[in-house]
Q: What sequence folds into this?
């Protein structure tokens, strides 16, 4: 059996991890087991990939050829498509970095019309509740019209 | 050509030295630089060169893998390119504007790293310009973007806006008082990092600090700039309050300290980078408290750049002692003229 972390050496350490009552068996080589036991565990990425419950050591990004083993070593992705290919593996890391946050900043100049409309819609809704709270009724009315128009376009 | 740092405007802010905006961008159609072939890297550099050549408002100089190592080291010391980029060996390029306020690295950790620098607190103006250049590049190159994660980057810590906004501050009184720890702990809770600009540790050279946002996913660009600005303004108030306190406590001692710094800078024959930074810091403090005449003011950021080892010795041929002598000569000329 090969080590599930590096996928290269023979696994000589076998243990079971219990995460919220969900038990997972792990099989590691001597080096990776030593690494896991060291203080490196606090390392931002290593620890997360290491403890991720769904270890798919065979997983590969079809676009750039990056493997899960490489990703867990460096903590950095190989291409934009890696974020989709390893979405499950990256989730705990992203969760720790950002919680449940979504991107609320700039949308690129060449983004689809749809995306721009959806983004403007959520902005306009936020502005509307601000306008109502501030009792700016004229601005609120204008925003309501804009939201209605955007909704219609999105149909 | 005049550099962005070469003249300090009259009455310039005594505490804020410079602001910096950095954007990380990647093309959707290519693997990230670490997994690109040489052909892909060469091709990307050529495509970006074409974009930059269309920016007629400024002229850009290209530095690449054929540039001498010492030139790249000097650019890194001037913070125009990253040390990693300077030391790499793969196909890459940096396009730097004549006044050095705009730099665009191609094939660093991300496909593109756009950086804008300016004097004083000017994050909003710098971002507005970065935004325009970004729109132009994005329209031609098509960036990797995800509705939820924002701009996709090599390292997950740069996701979202791909924006790092930094401000460089001179905080000698705060550093001396030991009050920075509490402020930096509070700033960290807002996602803002405060660190020594030259060297880590509790006593960074020249008492220069950099304030910047840590993450850029979940906040808009405007919110990020606002948060950094809020922390900067808090630091400014505290620093000014402590400076006045120092003055009240013992004006004579403070005056002696800044005039000694002036004496050394205008007469020493050999000077290390660290000593020069400490003395320049004292000079700047002295001017802000009117202990030294305003005429003695100098664009500190420009001088800091000029005293760096690879800038003093672009050919990389001097011994450390020769560099210390050249540095002392430069400073002596600057300061004895200003009497
Ligand atoms: Zn292993
Ligand atoms: Zn990939």
A:
């Amino acid at each position: 059996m090969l080590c599930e972390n590096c996928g290269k050496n023979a696994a000589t350490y076998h243990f079971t991890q219990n995460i919220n009552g969900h038990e997972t068996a792990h099989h590691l080589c001597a080096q990776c087991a030593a690494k896991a036991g060291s203080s490196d565990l606090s390392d931002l990425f290593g620890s997360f990939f290491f403890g991720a419950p769904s270890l798919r050591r065979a997983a590969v990004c079809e676009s750039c050829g990056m493997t899960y083993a490489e990703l867990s070593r460096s903590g950095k992705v190989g291409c934009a498509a890696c974020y989709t290919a390893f979405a499950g593996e990256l989730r705990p890391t992203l969760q720790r970095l950002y919680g449940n946050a979504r991107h609320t900043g700039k949308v690129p100049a060449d983004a689809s019309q749809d995306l721009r409309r959806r983004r403007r819609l959520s902005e306009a809704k936020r502005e509307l509740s601000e306008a109502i709270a501030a009792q700016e009724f004229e601005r609120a009315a204008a925003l309501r019209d804009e939201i209605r128009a955007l909704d219609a376009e999105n149909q | 050509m005049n550099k962005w740092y070469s003249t300090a405007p009259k009455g310039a802010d005594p505490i804020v030295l410079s602001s910096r905006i950095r954007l990380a961008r990647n093309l959707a159609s290519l693997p990230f630089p670490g997994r690109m072939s040489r052909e892909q890297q060469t091709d990307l550099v050529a495509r970006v060169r074409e974009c930059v050549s269309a920016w007629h408002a400024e002229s850009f100089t290209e530095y690449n893998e054929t540039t001498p190592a010492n030139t790249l080291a000097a650019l890194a010391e001037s913070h125009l390119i990253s040390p990693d980029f300077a030391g790499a060996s793969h196909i890459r390029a940096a396009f730097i504007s004549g006044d050095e306020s705009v730099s665009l690295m191609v094939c660093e950790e991300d496909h593109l790293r756009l950086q804008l620098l300016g004097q004083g607190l000017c994050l909003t103006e710098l971002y507005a310009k970065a935004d325009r250049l970004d729109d132009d590049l994005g329209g031609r190159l098509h960036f990797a973007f995800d509705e939820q994660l924002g701009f996709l980057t090599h390292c997950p810590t740069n996701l979202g806006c791909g924006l790092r906004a930094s401000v460089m501050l001179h905080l000698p009184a705060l550093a001396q008082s030991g009050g920075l720890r509490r402020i930096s702990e509070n700033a960290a809770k807002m996602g803002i990092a405060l660190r020594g600009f030259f060297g880590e540790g509790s006593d960074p050279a020249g008492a220069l600090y950099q304030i910047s946002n840590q993450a850029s996913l979940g906040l808009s660009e405007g919110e990020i700039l606002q948060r950094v600005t809020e922390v900067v303004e808090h630091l400014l108030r505290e620093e000014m309050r402590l400076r006045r306190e120092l003055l009240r406590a013992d004006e004579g001692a403070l005056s002696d300290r800044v005039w000694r710094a002036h004496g050394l800078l205008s007469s020493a024959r050999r000077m290390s980078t660290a000593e020069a930074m400490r003395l320049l810091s004292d000079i700047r403090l002295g001017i802000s408290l009117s202990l030294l005449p305003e005429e003695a003011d100098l664009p500190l950021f420009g001088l800091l750049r000029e005293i760096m080892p690879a800038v003093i010795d672009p050919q990389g041929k001097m011994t450390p002692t020769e560099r210390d002598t050249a540095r002392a000569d430069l400073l002596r000329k600057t300061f004895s003229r200003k009497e």
About this structure: The radius of gyration of chain B is 21 Å. The longest strand of chain B covers residues 16-25.
